Each structure stands twice: as C-alpha cells, then as structure tokens.
Amino acid sequence: MDLKPETLAEIEAAIPKYPEAQSAVMPLLHAIQKDQGAISNEAAEWVAEKLGIAPINVLSVVTFYPFFRQHKIGKRHIRVCRTLSCAMAGGSKVCDKVLSEFEAELNHASPDGEVTVEFAECLASCGSAPVMLVDEDLHENLTVEKAKEICDKIKAEAKA
Amino acid sequence: MAIHPKEQRLVLKYADEPGYTPSIDSYLAHGGYDMLKKAVTMEPQAIIDEVKASTLRGRGGAGFPCGLKWSFVDRKSGKPIYLICNCDESEPGTFKDRQIVHKDPHQLIEGMMISCFANNVAKAFIYIREEMPYGAKILDEAILEAKEKGFVGDNVLGSGYSCEIVVHRGAAAYICGEETGLIESLEGKRANPRIKPPYFPAVLGLYNCPTIVNNVETLCNAVHILDMGAEGFKKIGRPNNAGTRIWCVSGGVQRPGYYEVGEMTLGELVYDICGGPLPGRSIKAIIPGGSSMKILKNGERYKGKNPDGSEYDWGLEDIPLDYDGIAAAGSMSGSGGMMVLDDTVSIPAALANLMAFYSHESCGQCTPCREGSLWLKKITSRMVHGEARPEDVDLMLDVAGQIAGRTICAFGFAVAWPVQSYIAKFEDEFREYAAHLSDPNADRQAIKELACNG
Q1: Is B168's CB within 8 Å of A27's CB?
Q2: Could you tell me the residue range of the domain that residue B64 belongs to?
Q3: 328-367 in chain B: CB under 8 A from chain A
Q4: pLDDT tens, residue order, chain A (160 aa)
Q5: Would you give the DSSP letter of residue A22?
Q6: Min CA distance, A15 vs chain B (Å)?
Q7: Contact at 8 Å (CB) between B242 and B250?
Q8: How many residue pairs bridge chain A and chain B with CB atoms within 8 Å of each other?
Q9: 8 Å CB contact of B257 and A127
Q10: Residue A27: its chain B contacts at CB < 8 A?
C-alpha cells in the first residue's frame, strides 16, 4: 500500500477517536478511496490488518455502501439527484444534458476519462431542486443551460 | 433565504441573518453557549425533567417524546452511555438539518453538550451523511473551536464534566437514518437494522451500551428549552405538539424552501408562505412528512373525532400543521419534508420514482422488503414504460401488504405506505393509466422523466 503521508496521518488520527477499532472502518475507507480512487482488495486487507479484524468484515462494508467503490471512476464524480422533488423539477433532463456533453453513459466513465455521471438518491436539497454534486460541490436550481455551463467549466479545468 | 413574516424562528433564528457565519464568534455574539453555562450548574436530572416537561417530540420522523426517550436509558448497567446525533438526513423531501449544520453548527454542538451533560455521556457522535462533505468539515472545525473555548472536551467550563464529540461520515446509504442501522454502521458494519426487542438503543445500543439517538433539530431544541423553560416552550404550538417545526417544502409551489413555524394550518404554509401552486396549476396532492408518509389528496374531506369528543371536518388546507393534526388526517408529519404534487404530476410515475428509491435503499436483510421493494419497482416501472398488465394494481397492493409490518425495521412501512395510500386515493388514475399507456402511440416521455428510473 502506497498511501500519501497525509492519508496515513488521517488514518492514524481517526482510529483513536473510537472506543472500538472496527468503528474506524468507514473513516479509513473514506481516506483510502480519496487517496487511491477506489478500494482494492489489497486496501481492504490492509484496513483489516490495521484494525485487527477479518478482511471479509471490511469487504462487506465496501460492498454495502453505495459511495465505496472497487473500481476507479472518471476524474470528476458527478451525481445528479433523481428522487421525486428533483425529478419533478427536471432532474432527468439535467442528467441527459450532462451525459451528452461528455458523450458518457450513465454509471460509466466518459470516453475521455474526465467524468463519471451517476444518479444519486435524494441529496437533501429539495427546496432548490434539481441539484447535483460535482465531487464535493453542490449545484442547485439547475436548468439544462446551467448544467451546460458547469460542464463547460469542467472541460476547461480538464484542459488547464 | 428570506424569512417569511408568518414564520416563528427559534432554531433557525440566526441562520439566515446577514453576516451570520458558522464561526464560534458569530454564535457567541448572539448569546451562544449561555445555556451550556447554565446547564453545567444544574442537576443533570433537572435538565432531563425540564426536557420531559417541555413535551418536545423527536423531529427526525417518528415524533417520539424526547424526554421519555432519555428516561428509558439504562443508568445502572455500569456501561458508558453514548449519545448519537442523527444527521443522516436522507428522507426524500427533507433538507432542514442541512441548514442547521451548514449555517449554525455551534447551536447543534451546544444542544448536544447540554443533552450529554444531562445524560452523563462522555462520548458523543454526529453521524452525517457522506453527501454533505462541507457539513462534516464545518462540524469538525466548530468542534475544534468549541474545544478551544472549553465548551467541549475535558473539564467543560471548569465543571469537572468531560465529553468528546466525534464526527462520523456515512457512505450514501439511506438506511443509516434508521437508528439501529445507524448504530451498526457506526460500529463499522453493514447498516442492517437490529431487532427490537432486545436491541432498544436505550439499553443495548452502540457497542451494546445504553445509547441515545436524537435528530439534529431535536437536539438544538434542548438549548431553547433551557432558555425559555418548559412552560415557555410549550406556549408555542398546540398541546402535545410543543415548539416550532422546520418544514421543508418542495415540488409544485411558488416559493419552495424551509420554513420554521409555530401553530398554523397546512394551507397557511402551502398557500400563504409558499405562494400556492405555480400559475395555471392546482395542487393535486401533498406528501406531508417525507416520501415514506401516506399521501394527502386535495379535494378530499378529512373527518373524525377529537379526543374531547368534538368532530372535525377539514379540507386539505385546514389540517393543523403538526404531529397530531397530520396524524388525524391519516398520515404523519415525519421528518417535515413536504412534497407538493401539482396537477401535472402523474401519481403512478411519482410512485415509480419512489419505488426505485426504496428498492435501491433496502438493506436486503428481510426477505419481504428486499424482494418486495424490487418487485414494486419492476411493476411501477413497467407501468411507466407502457407494459402494465391488468392485474398490476392488485398485485402491487398484495406485495405491499406482505411487506408492511413484516420486517425488522420501519423501512417496510416506508415502502408499503406510498403504494397503499397512492392507490387508495388515486386508484382510477392507476387503472386508467395502465390501460392508456398500453397504447403504442402514447407519449411517455414526461412520465419516464418523472419516474427517472432508467
């Protein structure tokens, strides 16, 4: 495991916060996924050893939670909310626009590897629907036009 | 967001004030942590008694009385007592905890510290959903600030009392909002809810220790109960519905958003505050408390008897906007996430949207829920795609009936209630719809977009 120093520091800081080591599984997986883009079997075994638990107990967590992934995705992670309030406000059209801008298929990295577009379940911002997350940033009150502007910005940042 | 004159803001009092920031300086400049200072001079039991007397009910969904929940905590086990703030806000339609955490995190921390002191808790957690990464950072930062000032950590305000707060991030699983699923998740496992009995959190919670799980808004109210006193707090709202509530309104209204109000009717919120439907449209139905709650149909009369024997006969707009009012109309106020469906919304397509949600979010532990939610997704989906079968409406009711009440946690009801209530109130639409959409020339684009399930 070749983790960045700041990832290792984050991991060392997380473990003692919990009365029982197994509780640190999720914070460790968050740190490793951020560092490596996905959770490999090697990473799961590393976490297991670090916390003194069986690898299956780590893998069972990785496979349960939608946010943890075993395969890498595009450089930017775009999650368009699909649940009712966003759908009523046009979330589906926003998603279609983002997909077409990157010539991408839902849940697959775009051909240029820049983005992976997914549907997300309710992002808890229904009053400003439709919304989407681009990595950690929430974009609200989207329209097809606004979605295009965001895509253009992502493309420009990719070139820079 | 602009504050509407009909609002009565308590928890969100400062959140939208110009210049107010999540920093501790903002909070302290507005009297922040004064109630924690008061709390540590009180007997812990006196705080519990005050919260109990306030009749504060949980703001997360079930509406259980907070003080009563605290009173169930096993204090003789010899094990540590934990407190967990449930900030896994994921009930579709709900976005109130997001406002508190992002705009006024110290109020939550003060509410938690008061609650922890009252219940002799030395370690507390905030379980925040993964999709609020900035919220988690803001909370981490706020806890550091509060520690520096002596409000959190060792020897709080020189009282000899110590308590740590740890922010724990979820990973996009709705079921973590269910308190025992949350506890499993916090133990580093899959979030499969636990069976009650024996796993009542107050007795066998986190690490099988006594545990309190409260919603963000509920914990913030602890600050105001100490400030106003139980009697003052109870002056807001009807009896048994004390305090303000933050309603999150989305869908077909002119001014969607979050509104904190005292006693009022559903019509005052939807028409006066939110401006009613969009021009040229009308309100068809309202899902009052998050997507799991039974739908309320516009145009229907809601009749029954009050506890005092008098009778009520309400239209949708007359329903009192609180726990008991919405319960009397046959639904629940839930998490306060109100979705307004206007006359452009196809009810079967809305149901297809939600069934895709529930089948995705079922933890898979109980067969009726795991299999049933998937079948309900398949059936509603084929309706939307013009492949409905004549027996589908009855089949949906049959499947939903086999889920409700037959699972470990309340998620089973959350799947079944929309199916049962939407069909009960809009059966004609389901039946007509199925027939009409079998027409090969039918335009299904709009309903496919609403169902949004691939």
Answers
A1: yes
A2: 24-234
A3: 337, 339, 341, 345, 350, 353-354, 356-357, 360-361, 363
A4: 899 999 999 999 999 999 999 999 999 999 999 999 999 999 999 999 999 999 999 999 999 999 999 999 999 999 999 999 999 999 999 999 999 999 999 999 999 999 999 999 999 999 999 999 999 999 999 999 999 999 999 999 998 8
A5: G
A6: 11
A7: no
A8: 161
A9: yes
A10: 168-169
In a domain? residue A70: no
Is the domain of B72 the same as that of B143? Answer: yes
Nearest CB to B171 within list A51, A60, A67 = A67
For residue B203, CA distances in Å to A145, B189, B207 come to 53, 20, 11
CA B30 to chain centre: 27
A47 lies in the same domain as A82 = no
β-pairing, B257-261 vs B245-251, is antiparallel
Distances (CA, A) of B349 to A160, B282, B424: 43, 18, 16
The answer on A81 and A151 residing in a single domain is yes
| N-to-C CA span, chain B | 34
Last residue of a domain, one of A64, A98, A113: A64
pLDDT tens digits, one per residue of B362-421: 999 999 999 999 999 999 999 888 888 889 999 999 999 999 999 999 999 999 999 999
Q: Which domain holds residue A56?
A: 5-64
Q: How many domains does chain A have?
A: 2
DSSP letter, residue B250: E
Candidates A79, A124, A127; nearest CB to B256: A127
Across the beta sheet with B211-215, the strand order is B164-169, B123-128, B82-87, B211-215
Contacts with B, A 108-147, CB within 8 Å: 119-129, 133, 136
Omega of the bond prior to B198 within 30 degrees of 0, cis?
yes
Question: What's the whole-model pTM score?
Answer: 0.97
Instruction: Count CB neighbours of A45 within 10 A.
Output: 15
> A-chain residues within 8 Å CB-CB of B90?
121-122, 124
Give domain status of residue B15, yes or no.
Answer: no
Asked if B167 and B303 sit in the same domain, the reply is no
B213, B201 contact by CB (below 8 A): yes
Q: For A88, which residue in chain B has the nearest alpha carbon?
A: B450
Chain A interface includes B166 (CB < 8 A): yes
List, in order, residues 6 or more apart from B415 with CB less than 8 Å away: B355, B358, B362, B369, B372, B373, B376, B400, B403, B404
CATH number at residue A22: 1.10.10
**Count of domains forming chain B:** 3
Confirm whether A69 is domain-assigned.
no
Question: Is A28 near chain B, with CB under 8 Å?
Answer: no
CA–CA min distance A64, chain B (Å) = 6
